[in-house]
Amino acid sequence: MTITERHQFILEELQRKNRVTIQELSDQLEVSGVTIRKDLKVLEERKLLFRTHGGASLQNPYALERPIQEKQHINASEKQQIARAAMALVGQHDALMIGSGTTVFEFARHLSPERPLTVITPALKVAMELSHRKNVEVLQLGGLIRPNSSSVAGNFAEYMLEYVSCGLLFLGVDGIDLDFGFTISNLTEAGLNQKMIRTAQSVVILADHTKFGRKGIAKICEFEQVQYVITDSGVAPEMVTALEEFGIEVIIGE
Fold first, then answer.
1. Which terminus has fewer CB within 10 Å in the chain: N or C?
2. Whole-angstrom distance, CA of residue 217 vs CA of residue 175
3. Burial of 214 (0-12, 13-18, 19+ CB in 10 A)
4. pLDDT tens digit sequence for 192-215
5. Which pTM value belongs to this model?
6. CB 7 within 8 A of CB 38
7. Structural domain of 169
8. What is the CATH number of the domain that holds 42?
């Protein structure tokens, strides 16, 4: 098989599966992994694919930070699916934490507890949404507000978390990469997210299907630190299987 034929085969596999690994291409084409890596490098330089850890993808694996006003209109129906599914986990908890981002904000909009509930949050939009909600008391974490996310970050917010605890943390992410973990696209907020994860008894990640196979600049946790992932019906079955192998319960909204 010529180089051109190999490249054509790789691109056809990507069109069919959206993501390929070096190992499977090496086995299928009966060439070394070194040869496949060189092929992927050439194809990436021609802007025909994106190289990832151990393979390649048609989608850019790096998540870019976008203003919250822009993100709220992306995959809106999927976020509603996720928010409705997340409500089933609230149960009898008397305190929970909600991070920043449009998916967790959609969850906050659906929150209407029948018994008193304390919500701890760094997100200004979440606090404003819940501040007059029946049976909800809001603890707003302090610090400088980041315009892109309308959320606080920094030492003041992390200091406040030293003196609170909660049963559940509902957290949004910008990327879920099976080799790298859960990530966000802003370094400033990474420390606060990590602190919130350590504060909560259980961590619930809310992420639509487009976040899978992507990677933000800042890693916030490993798969072993997360108990639930709630996503929408567009998620690939192999992604669900991979998360379940890490011991994570995957809930798909409808």
1. C
2. 9
3. buried
4. 999 999 999 999 999 999 899 888
5. 0.73
6. no
7. 68-252
8. 1.10.10
